[in-house]
Amino acid sequence: MIRIVIHIIAISLLLAGLLMLTPHAAARTWQTGFLIYGKVSLPNGQPASRVVVKINGTTGLDRQVQTDDQGNYQFPSMPNGRYTLQAISQTDSSVSSSSVEADTSRTFNGNRIQVHLYIRAASSNSKETRKPGVLSVAEAAQRVPKDARKSYEHGLKLKEERKLEQALASFDHAIGIYPEYFQAHAARGDVNISGGKIDPAFQDFDRALKFNPEYVTALRGAGFCKLQQQQLNEAARYFVRALDVDPLGHLDRHRDFLAGERGLHRFDGDF
Known about the structure:
The chain has 271 residues and is an alpha+beta fold. It contains 9 helices and 9 strands. The protein has helices at residues 2-30, 137-140, 146-160, 164-177, 182-194, 198-211, 216-228, 232-245, 251-260, and strands at 34-41, 52-57, 62-66, 72-78, 82-88, 95-97, 100-103, 112-114, 117-121. The strands form 2 sheets. Strands 1, 4, 6, 8 and 9 form a 5-stranded mixed beta sheet that branches. The protein has a 4-stranded antiparallel beta sheet with strand order 3-2-5-7, with no helix packed on it. α4 runs antiparallel to α5 (182-194) and α5 (182-194) runs antiparallel to α6 (198-211).
């Protein structure tokens, strides 16, 4: 009789343990995968509502969602891997964002990855051949070592091939040889933007501007970073500086932003 009672108690405890374990197991199952989310913004900083955000994985996984009224989007339960995201207008395919990479192996926020996208119209002059700009004083005074230039040019090639980590390593090597190489700092900033690393990207552009305050690529990149960080006044400052240095070369890229933010023209102080 005692053995029967003990046996019943043991079974009861086992069942109770299974019942207690089930919610945790379900929670683990629910937490499987990654949440990739963010916001899509228009050139004037306003949310881009009802645009399509596409995500493509290196394994062939393709999905798309539509942003809400605040420009927010999310892709839940994404498998581990590397993805490319892009926002595209439903009414005009020429209005889109740059492609941004998201790598789940590089997240420091658990299973959540935030990627902000900036949508803009393609420049009507993007395919035109422009005359080379005038060589700046900073560029004319450069004495870039051969090895540094070689690493920089190799990094540009890797960047075009979307081999971002290798491109970063090449730019790091170039900067290590020649720390004043502002073109390499700015190129590294572009790669960091492609990887969704806005804060490190701004630091790269800021370093480039310390060596050449009129380097348009860095001014444009810094403005883009500030726009992503919702610091619209600072973004406008950088864009205006880029226009001052190169009025024709960057007018198309920033006209919409400046026109949409009329209140941002009341600046305090000088650039």
